[in-house]
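Reply to dn_fold:

You asked what the input looked like. This is it:
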Amino acid sequence: MQVWREALGRGVSAQWGRVGRLRRALVVLAAAACTAAALLYWRQQLDQRDHRPLHSLYSSVEPQWSWICHNDRCERYLASETATLQSLPTCNMLCASTQLWPQPTGPVSLATAAVPVRADRFSLHVTATPSRDVSHALTEAFSLMQADMRTLERSAGGDVRRADIEPPRDVLVRVAVNGSGDVRMRLDTDESYKINLRPTGNSLTVDITAHSFCGARHGFETLSQLVWLDPYAGSLLILEAATVVDAPRFSFRGLLLDTARNFFPVGEILRTIDAMAACKLNTFHWHVSDSQSFPLRLNSAPQLAQHGAYGPGAVYTPDDVRGIVHHARLRGIRVLIEVDAPAHVGRAWSWGPTAGLGHLAHCVEAEPWSAYCGEPPCGQLNPRNPHVYTLLERVYAEIIELTGVDDLFHLGGDEVSERCWSQHFNDTDPMELWFEFTQRAMHALERANGGRAPELTLLWSSRLTRSPYLERLDSKKFGIQVWGSSRWPESRAVLDAGFRSVLSHVDAWYLDCGFGSWRDSSDGHCGPYRSWQQVYEHRPWTEEVPAVLPEQQAWRVEGGAACQWTEQLGPGGLDARVWPRAAALAERLWADRGEGAAADVYVRLDSQRQRLLARGVRAAPLWPRWCSHNPLACL
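and this is what came back:
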């Protein structure tokens, strides 16, 4: 038995030896076959490489869709069904539309080819500058543009340099400013600019010329829109060549934000200013106070915030304001702070008696509120108390010092309750008191501004801007921000009277409308919702000027502003409420093209919304994403 087992063992061992040699041979053959297949695939890829777009080779993840430009429209295909692999952003940029927002007003020429770039390969050379301030501001604004590009690069994920096939191009940006040495946005600032982008050897050269820092900054903004992230490449691309000549139609292009009804953190204000800059809006109208709260802490009158703020965490300090102003200035935006008066004041002004100043305000939180104001709480300043004007002078002086805006000011001046003043001053017509207050507030502003009136001092349209009081206002000093409906006769009367005007018509540019009333029973709210198309298509200045006006007198429309009042809006909801509707206003005021919301506008605004999202602005969608994936199919 033992011999048999040994013999069996020798047989099995020999058999397994033969099996092992066979397995090793099969492994070698399999490895050779895999190597041959890999070499064949590699050679096939090399052969096909010249027949596929450069940027389709950047990513190791094959996408699902490809967009091809046919008949000036990007059409979507399954990636497996076409030999051309192209992302939607690249197709949009290289197809018929300019994709610039707002649309330039001068000649535009854009290449239909793109090359890779990197944010850190952009360099700045200032070839001409009228002042050191302008030079420093240009350097900072250029860095901001690079930071936006880096944000795009980071959104691609990972280190995009590992994905490059063609090396990124160097981009030299040469800037010449020949004009104002003041970096501030002023009423007379020339915001025009020119861009010339062209290849020079293996690099690109961009020449930006302007007459002001603000114009050059707009040039940076337009240049940044010629750069985009290709998601299939995982890399930034830029048009290979471009020429843009541009200047705004209107000099005042604003957005009002009310921070009194509900408080908004500084970060939300800064993000709003970022979005404004992306759309070339130039005036942040900060309605900082109202009857509900006074959140602005001023060194000249600390009692206002002490008695009027919602709490210690709902206050803007002077340093906050300086930071916001600096942030805005580098983006070509002025900060216009409005402390509304004589109405729309509240408990912030109630400390007068204890300070020995008498009553600074009357009807504060009066009941029933509906008899004294449009919404609770009520209150308006005491026009006969001289301490009121002393305080206003100090407040105005500090606002001018903080913002650096001394050629433009906003006095407020809306919705005075005649009943309130009649109860306290029954010997005088309340309208006469209102007119007197306005004149005295203007004198306080002149003293606060070094003894001279600003070039333009705005008032809200009101009963004071109707006849016979309108004729008594000095049109050389006062301008009117017209908030009433464009169809109201009194709205047009301001224009007919020759006043410089900023239009904020409630029937088109009030962004708070359409959300119902926040009160149990009131018809004071506005509605319906103002869509971006309504915002875009509103062009009241195209109405015919009446023949009864002298030939030399024309409507003096400085521009317009969208208004975001915040009775029903708080932190977290601001972006989607304002954007992209305020972007529609921006193009209307910048370019003022005659056409309405044409198909091209939809595609370009959708691209602009994507830019806002990339900068951290949570803008609302225009439509379902399918419509973005199938341009023009939803129109």
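Residues 44 and 96 are 34 Å apart (CA to CA).
Hope that clears it up.
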